[in-house]
Amino acid sequence: MIIGVPKEIKNNENRVALTPAGAKELIKKGHTVYVQHTAGDGSGFPDAEYVIAGAKILPTIEATYEIAEMIMKVKEPIESEYKLIKAGQLLFTYFHFASYEPLTMAMIESKAICLAYETVEKKDRSLPLLVPMSEVAGRMAIQKGANYLEKPLKGRGILLGGVPGVLPAKVLILGGGIVGTQAAWMAAGLGADVTIMDVSLPRMRYLADVMPANVKTMMSNEYNVRTLIKDADLIVGAVLIPGAKAPHLITRDMLKDMKPGTVLVDVAVDQGGCIETCRPTTHENPTYIIDDVVHYCVANMPGAVPYTSTLALTNATLPYAIQLADKGWKKAAQDNADLVPGLNVINGEVVYEAVAQAFNLPFTPVEKYLA
Prior knowledge:
Blueprint: E1 2-5, H1 20-28, E2 32-36, H2 47-53, E3 56-58, H3 61-67, E4 70-72, H4 79-82, E5 90-93, H5 101-110, E6 113-116, H6 131-148, E7 170-174, H7 178-189, E8 193-198, H8 201-210, E9 215-219, H9 222-228, E10 234-237, E11 263-266, E12 287-290, E13 293-296, H10 306-335, E14 343-346, E15 349-350, H11 353-358, H12 367-370
Parallel strand pairs: 1-2, 1-4, 2-3, 4-5, 5-6, 7-8, 7-10, 8-9, 10-11, 11-13
Antiparallel strand pairs: 6-14, 12-13, 14-15
């Protein structure tokens, strides 16, 4: 198969979908890998390393899309890329369709095969291609939140871990999944007073067993959320419903109950956000303020640490990419059930129910294409 790796062009997105080591593994299997000129530079992988691995360098994004049977990306295509996508072409990337209707409609119109990293799912309901970036984003949420709590950045002027004789900051984490767990570990390690909220008692029992003493758990419901936000200094939104729009756990009216300078970090922003006042921001302009509350809502947080993120992502995606290249998307999905829920749009039809529901679109069961 011919694989194309275009350069990411979303604002301040420095990751690349495939490392030179990953390219070499695909080439060893007999596949051809084309990488757009400077695609890996932001992650610390220059063209020369891809050439040594056996990949071919193409000068433009247009040439990369034109030649490839499978496109490997990190972030969803943006508007300038829509016209480059061909019917029948396989796109293997993060899409987060449910949060952005124009992208969904463009991919339907393209008649491409859209296989979304974020909805590839194992039998145990884990999301193997979302986990590595969730781990990065969860840890970054605390790193960024601690930074924006500083007064020059309009935060409360509070040190996350406190000092002897001064209480630490209170960190509230909404969601006890991968993002929430990683955020809690980081916040706890810095000495903060941490509370994780979730709706699953088994999950909270697990977290209570493994977390240090400065991490507490509480059932997530509106009453409890409204109570805890009054004292929180840093609130991390870490809610995920696979493939669907995130629910709003913090509504517009709740901001008035927060202390001035409270920092909100909504990691769920690429699925619509679990904070009603959240809107996607970029690393270039990461924050905005509403009712004296600082909102950090960068939609590609791991893009700020591209070396770490690219290695972590390729570690997870490469085994699936090899299967797709070896067998084609249909046979690969037939042989590996993990890939089936990853299929979101096929030949102009929405085959992932949550995406169809998000925009009231016709839904076609994916089995139509795998029978």
